[in-house]
């Protein structure tokens, strides 16, 4: 494959050119209620050329990789047009030339598992949920695996081949009593591993069934300000959504005022708060051994001892801000150019036990699991899968419709307890940014306690 | 079509969905050109029914089609037993879906459009940080099946989306707006700029709204808060699965009689037309809610079969022009949604409010229990109304409620309608007594 690429790169008239080719094999099985709603075995291939001409980016994406040289010409042509409009040419920070080939070792390679076995496994989980209770009205059960073969080369000499496995199991149950509203519970696992991740997950199936039933009797949360104890799953989503995105340098590398707000060394949280983005943890789905600019992964402290420590960079944002590339330029597929993204992002463990965190709360909410979250710079919102009322340090009734919101700078300052029980969690779904979705990421955290957090409700 | 022939030889029936798409996205960051892209997609999806079982596969570089056919047949071998068949050929509309001039817009022309938008906004306030993405696209879609259906259509589009940030020392104000159309002539850039300037004018003063219950007016864009759960209730698959709150309400009144809801593929002034859905079924216009009464639901071929109904022309693979995710199987979803306007002007509705909230944009859309109609959102763009006038921008404010409860109350619909994002036309709508939580 490199021959084709070498020839095309050789033809490039740009100041810098990179080519990324991808071939993806994926299987999908999906049940809804009793119905096998999707069974899909597909292969997709395509590529992207990105080139810099006089400091202007030109990009071409395509499915047919036969006339690669023409795609380089095409990208060069649009780059020329772009460069004539530029007030400030793009520069790229230096990065070592890399030559590497990476193949994952999978315990049970899902490519060798017959589709029928995948279907049967998912069917068994689906039936477990459906038959759990007559009030379970519907389900959504999804199995998907993907194996992406990536080839990357640029005119600086970097040549990387890497294969990226991804396997996901996601289960949703919908319960409804005769007169009530439907209630939904979900759970998922997703990792860069083999088929072994998704077998033996009967507890996960019965768990989502049980939780949907619990929600039938749950009280809606009363809106207001509370001390909130976040479980690791939700706290992980919180730190990813609310703070991680803010550290992506492409949000502010051209905005001086935002850079003043995001000043390195500024105190953002308590002394014992450390937030990390780590490009490689064995088996994790956020792993990015080499990013889509050929930069080697690293471990980046975003917050160290409560102070802003570093940003996540692409080569472009690093050059503009005088930083170093951090291996965070990622693209969701060959259809997109790399942009600054997270990998495996987590809050490091502290010293407090779960009991200590809980017992000192007079009135509060224990918010568990996450439906999702969204941020708009300093503002964030995220939805818990469920919650429990906390009274006098004890867990009380189950709550539903728990949505937390706030201003990130204020909220980080209001963290008043970090647990000793760090969990790094790979789940299904993925992260979305600038139309690139879903990007596999991993989040993690111990239990954390936050005071004065706004909870929406009626 | 070769692929269809090949598949039909080996399976009892087959359907091919093909898309060839070309687009030029142009991106400006912080008011400066960031990148220009040339984007080509060529993909196909194959559904087969063999021995009564459904199989599916998709691909891009198809070659002789051998791999995709084999994979689809392999999945059919262990696939769902289905009774439905692919649609028969039917007469479809012939509304214009393609504009040659729009499809040929050069990168330079698109860059100039983007620059104009940036100049106009920064002229209003030079401190603003403006990101603009523009894209022109042209697709060629073909759907053919072994029942003899063979439809193709070219669809063009041009879109502009704008992200504006105003960064102060204590406060960041940020919002988003967009417009899109099948042809440049129908692209409402002036309307887009007017809305952006209006928001900035209203945003000048920061204020708070004490926690409580208030009348709330949703702008057409803000209305997605209510429409997302509501439309989920009209999804035929949810109706069949018993998870729709509206499933057993056909013929019953669920909303104020001032509120009607239409779906279809062709509307007289629509910025986009689509004559058929992604399964080749004509996109008929239908009333989902007729003066507050549930009139019907949205079905693709499969959900219609399961529910014992007829397909309504709502089988889609996503995206405003259809087929944007050819990798997925078709799903029942709205094509273009229209809410007919009311008879009171927007200005009059505002002036009737003593104290209340105008909601234009929120965070966390669709992240709660959508099926039950619950919503709980952080209002990212909202304004306090005091004594019948906008008194300033609010912040750190949550709204929460249940769509199905709210719609039963007295609603006031504005007499002016607006296209939002090219596939929704709606007026502003006022509801009473919504819960608002304001952080001190």
Protein model, in words:
The complex is a heterodimer of chains A (458) and B (440). Chain A is of the alpha+beta class. Chain A folds into 2 domains: 2-217, PmbA/TldD fold (2-Layer Sandwich); 220-456, no CATH class. Helices cover 21% and strands 41% of the residues of chain A. In chain A, a hairpin with an 8-residue loop joins strand 13 (329-330) and strand 14. In chain A, helix 1 runs parallel beside helix 2 (68-83) and helix 3 (115-130) packs parallel to helix 4 (202-216). Chain B is of the alpha+beta class. Chain B has 3 domains: 2-202, PmbA/TldD superfamily (PmbA/TldD fold), CATH 3.30.2290; 205-225 and 341-438, no CATH class; 232-336, no CATH class. Chain B contains 10 helices and 19 strands. Chain B has helices at 2-10, 66-77, 100-103, 107-124, 189-203, 224-234, 236-241, 301-307, 346-351, 403-408, and strands at residues 13-29, 32-50, 53-59, 129-145, 150-167, 172-181, 212-218, 261-264, 286-290, 293-294, 315-316, 331-332, 336-338, 355-363, 374-386, 389-393, 397-402, 412-420, 424-438. In chain B, the strands form 3 sheets. A 6-stranded antiparallel β-sheet of chain B has the order 3-2-1-4-5-6. Chain B is globular. At the A-B interface, strand 2, strand 3, helix 2, helix 3 and helix 6 of A face strand 2, strand 3, helix 2, helix 4 and strand 15 of B.
